[in-house]
Every structure is written in C-alpha cells, then in structure tokens.
Amino acid sequence: MNFSRLLIPTLKEEPAEAEVVSHKLMLRAGCIRKLAAGIYSYLPAGLRVIQKVERIIREEMNRAGAQEVLLPAVQPAELWKESGRWDFYGPELLRFKDRHARDCCLGPTHEEVITDLVRREVQSYRQLPLNLYQIQTKFRDEIRPRFGLMRGREFIMKDAYSFDADEAGAEESYRAMRDAYVRIFERCGLEFVAVEADSGTIGGSFSHEFMVLAESGEDAIAACRSCGYGANTEKAEAAAGHDVFPTGTEGALELVATPEKRSIEEVTAFLGVTPKAVAKTLVFDTDKGLVAVCVRGDHEANPAKVKNLVGANAVELASEAAVAQATGAPVGFAGPVGLTIPVYLDRGLEGVGGLVVGANQADAHYRNAVADRDFTVAGWADLRVIREGDPCPRCGVPVVVKRGIEVGHIFKLGTKYSEALQATYLDDQGREQMIVMGCYGIGVGRTAAAAIEQNHDADGIVWPVPLAPWEVVLLPLQVKDEATRTATEGLRAAIEARGVEVLVDDRDERPGVKFKDADLLGVPLRITIGAKGLAAGVAEIKERATRAEHRIPLGEAAEWASRWVVERRTR
Ligand code: ATP
Ligand code: MG
User: Fold this and answer.
1) What domains can be seen in the chain, in order of their start residue?
2) Residue nearest to atom 12 of ligand 1 (CA)
3) Is the CB of 140 under 6 A from ligand 1?
4) pTM for the whole thing?
5) CB-count exposure of residue 420 (10 Å: 0-12, 13-18, 19+)
6) I want to staple 368 with a disulfide (CB 3.0 to 4.6 A). Which of 137, 216, 354, 473 is the partner?
7) How far is CA 105 from the centre of its chain?
C-alpha cells in the first residue's frame, strides 16, 4: 500500500486532550479520531491493528471450540427486566424508546440476549456444552470516558458465553477459556498476568482478570513474589490485626472539640495521635440503604467489598446531603457513636481498642470510642483495600502492588442468568435442569492501547510484530528517481510475494519527515532505499524496537526482511 494514497493523518504536536501515551500516540500516528467523548473513528492504520487483535482472538476462540455469532446491539428492556438488571445497571446503560414508546437499550454486554437465545434453542443435554462468542460494538455510558480506546463509551469487545450441563462441565469450559486467553495475550506480544478478581455487576461466583502491566493502568494488582498469588486489590483479602497500634479500652468516651479538623491528617495532627488509632467513617449509599463503614485512619475503604458484604447491586459514597441527614453533621465529622444506620467495622481495626472517631456534630470528635461499648456494630468484615507491604493472603509474605490494565475478564456465572431467565434443559433422565453458564470478555481496542502502553519510545509506537498495521515500511528517499523507484517496486513485489505486509512511503517529502512518521507509526522493520545504498547495491534495514541497523545486499533484502518478520509472528 502507498502512504500517499492512504488516510494516515500523522500529527507533529502532542494532542492536548490526551493524558496517557497510548491515546497520544494513536492520535499522533493517525490511528483514531474522536467524534464525541469516548466515541472514536478508526482510521486505516488503527483499524488494521484492531483487525489483527480480532484475528488472533478469532483463531484462539475457534481453536478452543467456541462458535462465532453476532448478536443485536439494540436490546429490548423486557429481557433486562427479567434478569433484574434494568433497575440495577445504573446510568452506564444507555436507554431509549423506539417509535412505539418501547424501552430499549444499547447493549453494554450480552448475558440477557444470549441466554434468551439459548433458552429457546437448547432443550436437551445432547446440545450441551455450547460456547458462543461475538466481536461487536458495545456501548457503556461511562461516567469518565478517557484515555482514548482504553475507556471509551462505544468500544469493540469480544464476548463469549459458555453453557454447560453441570458445574464440572462449566469448570472445564472456564479452564478452556482461561487457556485461550493466555494464548491470545501471548500472541499479541503482551506482558500480562491473570489475577483473581471481583465479579462486579455481571455477578457470579468466580472470576479472573487478565492484566497488562503498565504504570498508566487504572487497576491495582496485589502480587506475591513468594507464592505467586495475584489479585485485583479490589478483591485481595486484607489481613486483620496487621501492624496494630493498641490503645487499650479503659478510657471513658470523651468529646473533644476539633474545630475545622476534618481530614485524618488534620485530626491526627491536632490531637497528637497516630492514624492507626483513628477510625474514619464513610457513609455508602447502596440499593439496600445507607451503611456506615469504619476503617483505620491509614487504611482505605473498599467499595467492592462493602457491596459484597451487604449484598447490594450498586454502592457509592453517599452525597454530602445524605451524610448530613444520616449523621446530623457535615462531612468530616461522621462517626459510629449514636448512628442509626448499620455500622460495619473493618477487621483492620481489630485489637486497636479506644478509637478517635467523628462525633456526628460539627467541629467535634470522640476519643476512646470502644466498639460494642460506645456504639453498636452490625458486623466486622474485611472492608479495606490491601496495600503494599500487607501480608499475602496465601502465604503471609508482604505483597507488592503494581498497576495494570484489565484487557480481559472471565467469570463463572453459575446459574444466575439461567435461573432469572429460566434457561433449562432436560437431562438424560428427562429431568429439567438449570444450564450452568460462564462469560468471557476481551476489550479489543483496550488491548491495542495496552500494547502501546507497553511498547513505545520517545519517537512513537513500537508495535509488537503480530499487531503492527504493516510489517515492513519501504522508504524510498528520492521518489522521482527512476532507479529508486525500480528498486522499491522490486522489493515491494518480492516481500509481498512472501506474504508480508508492506507500506511504501511514496510521498514526495523530506527524508526527515518520512523517518519520523515511520517511527511514529511503529512499523517493526524499515527499509531505506537511497542513492548511496543503491550505488553500493545495499538496502539499509532498521529494526524499530532495537534500532539495530543492517546493510543487506539488495538482492537478498526481501528474503531477509520477510524471514525476520515471519519469525516474529505468532501462531
Ligand atoms: P472496567 O473495570 O475497566 O470498567 P469491566 O469490569 O466493566 O471493566 P467487563 O464488563 O468485564 O469490564 O468487560 C470485558 C472487557 O471489556 C474488559 O476486560 C475490558 O477489556 C473491556 N472494556 C470494558 N469497559 C471498557 C471501556 N469502557 N472501554 C474499552 N474497553 C472496555
Ligand atoms: Mg466497567
């Protein structure tokens, strides 16, 4: 393909709107353009990368025995009401009415639609197991779309759903998908880990996330270098009674004035206590009502754990107004003493004793607040976020916390959706049984973006060969020179004949411009055809990733470059 005929609008300047490197470079390399917040057009170079990710996914899903389907993007509300998610999915679900005033939504995920299909088409155990997947555009009205394709509102996802006769079969399907995911991300050339994860709004009993390790990742992973344990910090179990500062329980409850002292730093400095002796109280708004959660002053409350504890579908920090109403005090002075909403205590507070807590009145705290003496405890639970240095939940060795980008997520759903939608089959005895399900997602655009986060330098993208939009870029320096053109066309034909993808930068531009764009685009191998090289009968070949340069006789260049590429492809 010829650069001059392609829409590859590269940019010299850093786009101001982009924060992370993958977003910047996708814009600068002319891969994507923004239409509206979180909604992007894929330009030729970007689309080629997306299609490569999709191809790897298809090959591995098919290899694992999954069958490709394509489900509708527009979904009727009835199905979502049947599953109960119409009310619980919240504002991420884009809802609208059709001309008959029927409620619809744009699919953020497809459990309902696929379960409806399967309950209609599958009757017998003989039709199971079944694994159906699609690669399709999803819509989620994300509260904070950002980082380009990483967190879009409209984005391409591969989603697969498995249907089994029993738990053992479902585990087998889960394992097969897990293995397929490992192969997919390996083939994409990514450095990743599979970690235990929280099941989120999809629900279900068990899940793993595939995380690409990168500083810009929105997720945090607790990892143990000793036993290999890894989990999303949302999920990782945090130790009780770790690193405790005991204060004793003898002191009487004492009201102290703390004018304008709201934050833990302000309160501890003012009262001269350690954050370990303070309980901070957070009020969460859940679909099961308001709850208060106390964690140690130096710990962080974990909404995902709060959600699981109270069995809620949605949990968020309560608004200032709700906090004021529940506690009778402005934000910053909430505390467990005298509260009428349930108060849950994080196990990290075990063994501390008398706590400094908010007094539920402006500008005041209590000292020596003792659980079960001065306030009622609805329950003790692990409600905090694990942090670096906390003991590993498996082996006790201090964990490290790393940043990661969630590119894939697999869930064991059990019978959650088959029960809600009555997806049953008849077993070999003619008895009606629930189908056991699993679901498995991969963010296609996010995977491409994650590849850039991991593979770039100051000059641009460094695509792993399996994802590169083109495998070789031919760079003729004097495009009007006859000998240069003949050599370029000869090389192009010979490389393409070997099944390798070539981009020819045939633009009549200064060499500097062409070199810069080739680096920015991240094509793995660059072959320069210049007057000097031609006179000497050599092509100058440069590897994008290592910057290694090779002078190869012109007659051998096509063979050399093709072999280099093919060896680095993955199958
Ligand atoms: P996140 O926690 O990042 O919001 P999620 O748990 O909501 O992700 P899933 O519902 O498991 O995501 O979706 C499957 C995959 O789809 C994710 O692993 C991710 O790769 C991708 N994905 C999810 N939301 C987005 C988005 N807004 N933009 C791009 N890709 C996304
Ligand atoms: Mg999400």
Assistant:
1) 10-237+401-453 (3.30.930.10), 254-381 (3.90.960.10), 470-569 (3.40.50.800)
2) 409
3) yes
4) 0.89
5) middle
6) 354
7) 23
